[in-house]
Every structure is written in structure tokens, then in C-alpha cells.
Write a structure and sequence with these properties.
Blueprint: E1 3-4, E2 10-12, E3 15-17, E4 22-23, E5 28-31, E6 42-44, E7 49-50, E8 55-57, E9 61-62, E10 67-68, E11 73-74, E12 79-80, E13 85-86, E14 91-92, E15 97-98, E16 103-104, E17 109-110, E18 115-116, E19 121-122, E20 127-128, E21 147-148, E22 153-154, E23 159-160, E24 165-166, E25 171-172, E26 177-178, E27 186-189, E28 194-198
Parallel strand pairs: 3-6, 4-7, 5-8, 6-9, 8-11, 9-12, 10-13, 11-14, 12-15, 13-16, 14-17, 15-18, 16-19, 18-21, 19-22, 20-23, 21-24, 22-25, 23-26, 25-27
Antiparallel strand pairs: 1-2, 2-3, 27-28
Length: about 230
């Protein structure tokens, strides 16, 4: 599919991939969107592992250490950092900003214009929304996904609504619907999501440790519990 430079990088028209990439058969890189964008160059750093069924659109920039599962779609105009791990059948829609060391599990949907900071994690089935009034003639002008701050842990089948900001190192319990901003270091559960305690208050149910998040300092020590 390509030529290799002396440093091991792979170069084809509008696709630049760093050295030591492992790319399965059945991968589509540089897929052209029908949207008008400024730059159709796809840039992927070194040590990528891109598995069968992955489609990565032209016009995104991804750092070193990308690893995809099967049937992953990463659309255009995304800015993604190093060591991004994304599991099977997940879609990253266009215009997102994703930091370093982010892990997104299977069957997740990351809506356009979402921001995910470093070291965040999403369990299977997380769904992110970005449209506060779908179907309105102006909806595309105010569309914006949530902002997920550093180190946030998001459980299975969580739904996160547009414009929401989730504070650093918060934990969002399985099945939660996040409808409003979350203070840093909070534990949130329910529909609609409510703060039940801080991460520093959580106990380990397995008995392997006393507190699973005891190493997270200065977060959640004064998080108010909601009724």
C-alpha cells in the first residue's frame, strides 16, 4: 500500500504513518469525507497497531502507539494524542480532541466536538451526545459534545449529554445518565446522575485494598452529596 522511508515511516499521498506500524489486511486509511475540510492529510505516529475492519478517515492527526480493535471508525478532523487504545466497534466522530493514554472500550459512540483529556477511560457501551435540540434548523451551529477532564473513569452503558463537563478523576457508575456538570473527584450514579460521594470515600469491595482511589490527592475531599 505504500513506500517506506529510511527511518521506517510509511508515506503515501495524504497518508503519513510513523515507523514500526502493524496494519492488518482489510483496513481502510485515508477514507475521504464528503464534508469540506482544509486538510485531507492523515497523520498517524509510530508503533501503531491497526486491526482488521478499522476505517480511519483522511484529515485527522493521531500520535504514537495507536491501537484499534476490529471495526473501529475514526472520522476526520480529530486531534488524538499518544497511546490511544480503542476497542471493537467504536466510532469516534469528527472534530474531537482526545489526549494521551486514553482508553475507549467496545461499542462506544463519541459524538462530534467532544473533548477527552489525558488518562480517561470509558467502559463498553458509553454513548455521548452533542445536540441539545435535534432536528432544529440551527442545531448544527450550536452542536458540542461534553468535556471529560483528566483521569475520569466512566462505567458501562453511561450516557453523557451535550455541554456537560465532568471534573478530573471523577467516577461515573454504570448506567448513569450525566445531565449536568460534575465536580472533580465525584462519584456519580443514577438517571439523572447525582453525586453520592467523593472518590476518596469509595471502599474496595474485593478486600484487595482499603480504598481503590487513595492515590488520587486533592480531588473530591469536599464534594457535596446530592439528595
Amino acid at each position: 500500500m505504500s513506500d517506506a522511508r529510511e527511518d521506517g515511516a510509511i508515506i503515501v499521498p495524504e497518508i503519513i504513518i510513523g515507523k514500526d506500524a502493524v496494519i492488518d489486511e482489510g483496513v481502510k486509511l485515508g477514507y475521504k469525507t464528503g464534508r469540506k475540510i482544509k486538510d485531507f492529510t492523515l497523520r498517524i505516529g509510530g508503533q501503531a497497531c491497526i486491526r482488521f475492519g478499522t476505517v480511519i478517515y483522511a484529515g485527522s492527526t493521531i500520535g504514537n502507539g495507536l491501537a484499534t480493535g476490529h471495526n473501529v471508525t475514526i472520522r476526520e478532523e480529530n486531534e488524538i494524542g499518544d497511546n490511544f487504545n480503542v476497542w471493537n466497534s467504536t466510532t469516534i466522530d469528527y472534530g474531537c480532541k482526545i489526549g494521551n493514554n486514553v482508553k475507549i472500550h467496545c461499542n462506544c459512540y463519541i459524538a462530534q466536538f467532544t473533548v477527552v483529556e489525558d488518562n480517561a477511560f470509558m467502559a463498553p457501551g458509553v454513548t455521548i451526545a452533542n445536540d441539545i435540540h435535534p432536528g432544529c434548523e440551527f442545531s448544527n451551529k450550536c452542536m458540542r459534545g461534553p468535556h471529560i477532564e483528566e483521569g475520569v473513569e466512566i462505567g458501562v452503558n453511561v450516557t453523557i449529554l451535550p455541554f456537560v463537563r465532568i471534573g478530573a478523576h471523577s467516577v461515573i457508575g454504570s448506567g448513569t445518565v450525566v445531565t449536568k456538570d460534575v465536580p472533580p473527584g465525584s462519584v456519580v450514579v443514577g438517571n439523572p446522575g447525582r453525586v453520592i460521594c467523593s472518590v476518596q470515600d469509595l471502599k474496595c469491595q474485593s478486600g484487595l485494598t482499603d480504598r481503590p482511589y487513595k492515590d488520587i490527592l486533592n480531588y473530591g475531599s469536599s464534594v457535596p452529596q446530592e439528595d
